Amino acid sequence: MNQKMKFARMEMGMTQEQLANQVGATRQTIGLIEKGKYNPSLQLCIAIAKALNKTLNDLFWEEL
Known about the structure:
The chain is mostly helical. It has 5 helices and no strands. Helix 2 crosses helix 3.
């Protein structure tokens, strides 16, 4: 589950739909990423990080 991405999106005041439109994905894709049921491409990860003003590590790095 990607709570980091969800919290970052909510901090920006964005809906899943708004983020999806900004990064060229569907709302369903954003929802699946947030639920941990979809593994996005690196290109999509970069677009999401830029849209949320975060780094890839901020959003996608798993602490061991």
